[in-house]
């Protein structure tokens, strides 16, 4: 009888194993098969990854986050391991994580290689700046932490919000010619070209990227800016530079956007992070780009509380 009770207790332990201790083999964005056995101590690298974890109600498992993880405000309570592209292996490993979730593109590459080989499950999360890319990102995080059902529901809700925005913009005949300026260095703007997250954001918000002939983020000459003749300049709000000053800068002052003072400034992580709040960010950008258009509001979503979408 005693042995029988022991066996039953062991079976019960297996049946009621917490999500933090369930084994799961996932294939990450680099094609690596990663076995995840314990999700009780997660270091989250990438603001969108952190937002997804909070949306999946797994915030209690986060023991560290990178400096781009600023939303929701509760995320700030976790220790900061540094900027996602300038990580140190020691800083991440000092938190004794049982799982590291990192958005694809984090670095430096040698540090990522060290972390991948440190004996702790390290999952690279895909980061494709499209509506379907966001859904795939959500599902990848959800699978890694054993929350597939919640992940599927979240992905479907985000997909529905993207579709609602697409339908609202379907009848728009005029798409403003927009330039996304990441930064200004020595008077030369760093602008977004094809394949960048900003290029996707402009398209989803119903604008035409005047620098689509470039690839990624590239510096633009004054001559190229004048020839592109943007009607709107989109940039990021930050303490580092004043987006409003772009209209008065010599390189943009003679463009239609500069002459009319049409500058749209948004939080960079919100606009370019492509996390679960991406539809709300794109709607906010779309409304700024099409001020005469009465866009319908998106449904209230708990993971997007405090946003304007």
From TrEMBL:
- According to the lineage, what is the superkingdom? Bacteria
UniProt-listed InterPro entries: ABC_Transporter_SBP (IPR050902), ABC_transptr_periplasmic_BD (IPR002491)
* UniProt signal peptide: 1-23
Q: Which UniProt keywords apply?
A: Signal
| A Pfam family hit | Peripla_BP_2
- Gene3D superfamilies the UniProt entry points to: Nitrogenase molybdenum iron protein domain
Domain Fe/B12 periplasmic-binding, by residue range, is: 41-293
Q: Is Signal a UniProt keyword of this protein?
A: yes
- Write the protein's name: Putative periplasmic hemin-binding protein
Species this chain originates from: Aureimonas frigidaquae
